[in-house]
Amino acid sequence: MKQEYTVTVYTENQVGLLNRIAIIFSRRKINIESLNTSPSEIEGIHRFTIVINEIEDVVRKLVRQIEKQVDVLKAYFNTNDQIVWQELALYKVPTDEIAEKVKVERLLREHGARAVVIRKDYTIFETSGHREETDKLISVLEPFGLIEFVRSARVAIIKESAGFHLKLREFEQAEPSEEAVENEYLDQGKDVFVM
Amino acid sequence: MAGGLRSKIIVMETIELKPATETKKEPTTTISGSEAVLNAMIAEGVQTIFGYPGGAIMPIYDALYDYSTRLNHILVRHEQGGIHAAQGFARSSGKTGVVFATSGPGATNLVTGLADAMIDSTPLVCITGQVFAHLLGTDAFQETDVINITTPVTKWNYQVTDATEIPTVLAKAFYIAKTGRPGPVLIDITKNAQIQQFEYNGYTPCTHIRSYRPKPVVRKKYIEEAAKLINEAERPFVIFGQGVILGKAEKEFKAFIEKAGIPSAWTILGLSALPSDHPLNTGMLGMHGNYGPNVLTNECDVLIAVGMRFDDRVTGRLDKYAKQAKVIHLDIDPSEIDKNVKTTVPVWGDCKETLPMLTALLEQKMYPQWLQRFKDCTQKEEEEVIREELNPSGDILTMGEVINTLNEITKGDAIIVTDVGQHQMVACRYAKFNKSKSNVTSGGLGTMGFALPAAIGAKFGAPERDVIAIIGDGGFQMTIQELGTIMQSNVNVKIIILNNRFLGMVRQWQQLFNERRYSFVDIQSPDFVAVAKGYRIEGKMVSERKDLKGALQEMLTHPGAYLLEIMVGKENNVFPMVPQGCGVSEIRLK
Lengths: 195, 590
What we know:
The complex is a heterodimer of chains A (195) and B (590).
Chain A: E1 3-12, H1 17-26, E2 32-39, E3 45-54, H2 56-68, E4 72-79, E5 83-94, H3 95-100, H4 102-110, E6 114-118, E7 122-129, H5 131-141, E8 148-151, E9 155-158, H6 165-172
Antiparallel strand pairs in A: 1-3, 1-4, 2-3, 5-7, 5-8, 5-9, 6-7
Chain B: H1 2-14, E1 29-32, H2 33-43, E2 48-51, H3 58-67, E3 72-75, H4 79-93, E4 97-101, H5 105-108, H6 111-119, E5 124-130, H7 146-150, E6 156-160, H8 166-178, E7 184-190, H9 191-195, E8 197-200, H10 220-232, E9 236-240, H11 243-246, H12 250-260, E10 264-266, E11 281-284, H13 291-297, E12 302-306, H14 312-315, E13 326-331, E14 345-348, H15 351-360, H16 368-390, H17 399-410, E15 415-418, H18 422-430, E16 439-441, H19 451-461, E17 467-472, H20 473-476, H21 483-488, E18 494-499, H22 504-513, H23 528-534, E19 538-542, H24 545-557, E20 562-567
Parallel strand pairs in B: 2-3, 2-4, 4-5, 5-7, 6-7, 9-10, 9-12, 10-11, 12-13, 13-14, 15-16, 15-17, 17-18, 18-20, 19-20
Antiparallel strand pairs in B: 1-8
Helix pairs in contact in B: 2-3, 2-8, 4-6, 4-19, 10-15, 12-15, 13-16, 17-18, 17-24
């Protein structure tokens, strides 16, 4: 069954690697729902967070192909209940509407929105959360003249993860320990994709 | 200028042809990026480079002028020819092939070869020139985005814009190309970096990249589980691929099957890893493979795959493939495990290491009844297909009898390079081999035009051996220009054109599946012998049985390159055949 999977990839900071990873999906005509690249807990190591809708078998194969890339240190995949994730959303609304209508103020507060910029002509609010939450605020603000909306890619933390520091130390050794073997999830069946 | 030349000479004297394992600290000298490229080649033990010059790679070629006694550069006629030659070199020698090409069209002409090397796991290092760094992205003359074009068809690629990066990047390139599952690496070097003078501290080969695991660690647990399955099996069957050759594990493989007594069959790229006459060699797998290995894949109880990747041409329909069997898969590339066929026990690792570990745990066994099943199948195939193919009742020559006659002369000692199509299937089915690394063909990508340049490279990779290219009349015309390379570099390759005046494989499919609607397969050819003569290559055409053996002998004893065109039956088909969409046990004998 297709469901949302979050793929977390630890990589070297290398020009062209984004493309190398992206084409693993596009070659198989798999749509990337969201993609975020950012620094990780370790300086010099990048972290990709990729969201796709697929069946587990396909995701597992994709992750193996990603991990096979020379500049990729490690890739994990998780279902939504294994991660904590957020997306950031920005909303631009006419200031007079907000200022005049008490109702709007209350709605914004209910959705945990925060004003980032207040100008005479418009105000920008931000909120973060899951897609449904940020989506809901769109429909709430629409009647009040939502001018612009944008949402970031998902960023996610794997609940069970102990971070990458230890792993990296193993990777830096010329002879990897058994734990450092790539694709170690292969022998752990289903609930492996936790660190 | 004089100072520059002197420093050049110092470098040439101090770097000897050393194996790549030694770190040599040079007294710091100033050299150009181009010289650093060539020093890297020498330090890595490269002796032969296939290439074609052009504007953006001119500084490297200028440096090559001074290195021409240390590095043998073969001028090809087209960059595609260059990269296929490098592939042939890598396949016959077991070393890394090296290609030089210029930017733009030079680089794009490499793409087919890169894709071919990628899918067939051939170690290559390709150096392409690139426009000056400040011109990148300006649509400059002969600028193309080589890195992005080649990303899907390279194991790794990198653009160098600063000469100081060259020694480390090339060290990485050679390391990545050769280790783990081998593959092509492309390094794109901007012209300014080639020209740039920099402080050179010598060349240090790469031995470790933290993000790169060339081979997974072997797990004892899986070795034990696999051994248990094999020891308990009643009808075990081994299928092997090029992994055995790439891992240089032919001996280990032979010891493994001999101790376990298991019948074995090969994929097209695994061919020659096990001698043809080995009693446990049951033949070829897949679409045009032998009858027994295909049918009995669906009757074995334990299927042991060694260094092969379950290509669709091997498996046929996956949901009808070895469903009854427990599958043990030995592979160095973890992403191959479970990719196409679900594995019961994955034995990941280098088969050079895993095979002996496995062999140690096996009981000495034989399966006479099971082996007899294979023999019975061979008998059936012999009667229904092979006999007529090798000893035809009609007057017209068949491809099979050409290969069979060739076997009588070469005794299985030659390197056979094949192109793609019917002649390839026939050659792989019937050619005999005693030695590993003797079968060079484009397996995964199926690149027509591969054989002629690959044969050139194969000869440089194994100069002491006979190299025979077997090519169809269609494929030969795709890279016919490489006859010029053979002429200029005096490459002693023997070329057999099996001419059936058709694009035979497509025609066979059109006959079988498209009601004989022969759509654009009746290809016309020039007078091949006359073309060869134009390149000062000796040649002959034969069409009659009485002339065949003599002509083959004449070809092989001729002191230089030789082209032999052999006219074969126009509408012969290759059988057996697993039709597309069918399971392996539905293989057709006619």
